[in-house]
Amino acid sequence: MCAVGLEQVVETMRPQPVRALAGVPAYVTGVAVIRGAPAPVLSVGALLDGDSPGGDLPSARLVMVGRGQPYAFAVDEVIGIRTVPEQVWRELPPLLRSVAGVTAFAAVDGEPTLFLDAARALPGDTWDALEPDR
Hints:
Blueprint: E1 2-3, E2 9-13, E3 28-34, E4 37-43, H1 44-49, E5 62-66, E6 70-74, E7 102-108, E8 111-116, H2 118-121, H3 124-130
Pfam families: CheW
Domain CheW-like: 1-127
InterPro entries: CheW-like_dom_sf (IPR036061), CheW-lke_dom (IPR002545)
């Protein structure tokens, strides 16, 4: 199971058409136009598994997240909103620190839960490539 901070979530929505990009990490499935702006789409499954997402996005919703510009997580399902006390979250052990975008983990209802921050998963030059020319 994965979690994102509610303050990062703008909205949830159905998957939008995605255009593939060259030269980005395998878990970036491409770019979708969301509310009129280009937004990178990250496959959470590919982010965590380290494999290519295989072409199709999950049939569930995308979670819209904001970091000055939109980006989206492609997820299998959105379970809901939960409050997880800060003291429950643990710093990642060295073995897990190489997983892009994962910043902490916890046991929530007996399930291992990874806290994701996609802004940390995307390299700065990928964000730069999505900026409109001015």
